[in-house]
Amino acid sequence: MLYITVQDKVLADRPTTLAVKIMGYDRAMFGFLPSGPEWRNLRKLVIVELLSNRRLDKLKHIPESEVNLFIRGLYGIWKSKTEGSVPVVELTERFGDLTTNVVVRMVAGKRYFGDSGFKNEEARRFQQATKNFLHLVGLFMVSDVVPLFGWIDSLTGYKGKMKKTAKEMDSILEGLMKEHKHKKKLSSIDELEQDFMHVMLSIQESDPSAQISDTAIKGTCLELDIFSGRLLMDAMVYVPSFVRLESFMLEKVSGF
User: Fold this and answer.
1) Membrane-crossing residues (predicted)?
2) Residues 6 or more apart from 204 whose CB is under 8 A from it?
């Protein structure tokens, strides 16, 4: 009870890790910010403005359209098969492209992958940077436990990889932010295209008291892009796998 009533701020704080410090804009991601006014403001922004029912309802056409295009793409592969052959589809990769399209469109208003599966240079960079981020953020770093021996992390090469990944991801997010700012100047963003980044930039411009910096916007977009996309992809990959493994479930589903 002492920890909940007296030391609640300490209990609610989050540990500082080398990976989050380097790749997460020095803990600018709201999920890793220390408890305080900045964290409360950012949490309020995310809950009230970004992940509210009203905002998600405005953007619900994005997952609907992407799933529709995904199904059409699979049907196109089946339709183009030659007689007597069975087309083989790498669903893991396609699910990854689908979730990337959904999440990035909702967060930053950009669609990376087309119906034909074509991947542009930025799409490849984004996927690789995301993969590297998720790998590096889960590694054990000596400096996280014993800061005095932090030099060991430099010898292993992981610290350099973190800096490279952070630079790559920041380059992508900075480009997306510049595109949004340019569109805002031209007033060319439709109501249905007001993604999360646009909303945060609008609040930054209209309400200085919110104290939303460009770094906080990029950190929030990075967190929403990576972690929500990863969770969505895992769900889409594992559910069909479980259905395939459990024959009775497959029979039950096919019976409807």
Assistant:
1) 133-152
2) 210, 212, 213, 214, 217
Residue 30 in tokens: 């709201």
**Whole-model pTM?**
0.80
Distance between CA 138 and CA 20 in Å, rounded? 10
Q: What is the dihedral of CA 200, 201, 207, 209, to 10 degrees?
A: 70
Q: What is the 3-state secondary structure (H, E, C) of the chain?
A: CHHHHCCHHHHHCCCCCHHHHHHCCCCCCCCCCCCCHHHHHHHHHHHHHHCCHHHHHHCCHHHHHHHHHHHHHHHHHHHCCCCCCCCCCCHHHHHHHHHHHHHHHHHHCCCCECCCCCECHHHHHHHHHHHHHHHHHCCCCHHHHCHHHCHHHHHHCHHHHHHHHHHHHHHHHHHHHHHHHHHHHHCCCCHHHCCHHHHHHHHHHHCHHHCCCHHHHHHHHHHHHHHHHHHHHHHHHHHHHHHHHCHHHHHHHHCC
pLDDT digits (tens, 9 = 90+) for 130-154: 989 999 988 989 988 888 888 888 8
Selected residue with higher pLDDT from 109 and 34: 109
Query: What number of other Cβ atoms are within 10 A of residue 100's Cβ?
Result: 23
**Can you give the C-alpha Rg of the chain in angstroms?**
21
Do the Cβ atoms of 135 and 183 come closer than 8 Å? no
